[in-house]
Design brief:
Layout lengths: L16 E4 L1 E3 L8 E3 H11 L12 E6 L3 H13 L3 E5 L13 H9 L3 E4 L12 H19 L5 E3 L7 H9 L4 E3 L11 E2 L2 E2 L6 H7 L6 H19 L1 H11 L8 H4 L1
Parallel strand pairs: 1-4, 1-10, 2-3, 4-5, 5-6, 7-8, 8-9
GO cellular component, one term: extracellular region
GO biological process, one term: carbohydrate metabolic process
Subcellular location: Secreted
Length: about 260
Amino acid sequence: MRSSDLSASELQPRRLHLLYHELRESESEYSYIVTTQQFAGHLALLCADESVQAGPRPEFTFDDGHISDFEHALPLLSEQRVKASFFITAGWTGSRTGYMGWSELRALQEAGHSIGAHGWSHALLPHCSDVELDQELRVARLVLEDRLGSAIDSMSFPGGRYDKRVLKACHQAGYTRLYTSEPRTHLSGGVIGRVNVRGSMTNTYLQKLFDERSGALTSLERQYVLKAFLQKLLGDRFYASLWSMINRKQPDADAVSKA
C-alpha cells in the first residue's frame, strides 16, 4: 500500500460507512481482499485523534462472517478502540469452512461490537419467494438472537440488492436498520449506503472520499449506477460471471449472490 500524501488533520470526514469482506495477511488479486496492513492503515488514518476530525468517525462494517473478522479484524479494532458492525450469514455460521462459528461471534459481541444479519444463505432477496424471504429474514434473525442472547435489529442486503417488497418484509421481520452497498450516505426508505472497500484503495484515495471537493464519492456513485444498469441488462447469472472475471475470482456456487 502506498503511503498517505495527506495528514489526518487535512481530512474533511463525512459520516461514511465502510464495507469490508475479508482480511488477509498477504495481498490477493481478488479485489475484495484487504490486507491486514491496509486495514491497520485505514484505522490509523480515519480514527486519529477526534480533535482533528471535522465530523464523526466512519462506521466500519463487515459482511458475510468470514473467520478473518475474528482472527484479524478484532485485534486491530481493539488496538484502536474502535467498534464495528458485523453482518452474519446465519446459515453459514459454524457450518461453512472459512467462516466464524458461534464462539467467535460471541467473542465479537463481548468485545462490544454489533452483530447484524446478512440473510440465511446469502440469497439475493428480490429473487426470493415469500417463503424464502421468511427464511432469509425472520428465521435468520431468530436464530442469531437465540444463539447470541441479544436482539438483532440490523440487516445488510446480500449483494446490496433490495426493492420495495424486500424493504417491507425487512420491517415486518423486525429490522430497524438496513444497509446496502450503494456508495451514498443516505438513501430513500431509511436505507444506509456504504463504500465497498477494495484492496486497491490507498489511504490517499480514502482521504479523497472524505473530501467533498475531490468528487471521489460522486465518481463512485456513477460507477454504481452503471453497475446496476449492467446487472439489469445482463441478468444476474451472466453478470456474476463477468464480475468474477473482472475481480479476479473464479465463479463458484455463490458467485451470483456475492456479486
